[in-house]
Amino acid sequence: MDNKYNELLEKIASQQKGKEFTDVFMVGEQLKDICRNNGKATELVLADLDVPEMSLEKCAAEIKKEADRLHKEKKGSCICVPPNVAEGIIRKFYGIPDDSESVERKPEKSSNIINLEDFI
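The structure corresponding to this sequence follows.
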């Protein structure tokens, strides 16, 4: 594994310590998954975790805001923020681009293929 990713794991673990079975701990686990094979995200989050306003606890508070909003809107006795919604909040909080926002891969043009879009 990459040294930067290992450094990130250590930072996350230090912020998770003593917070097992809490939302803060789960944000750290999900952040590990998001950054696992993404070097740019790893470097971004590595720097962010040094800033108190960008801690796992502050990110968990953003997810709680969404849960509170849903609770008020749905008027149920219990609300759950699904992992995909939580991931979106985490990505937004840390400025990590969504995988779907990555550059589209266009097929290489072959010299013997005519693309009608080129004429429009």
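The chain has five helices and no strands.
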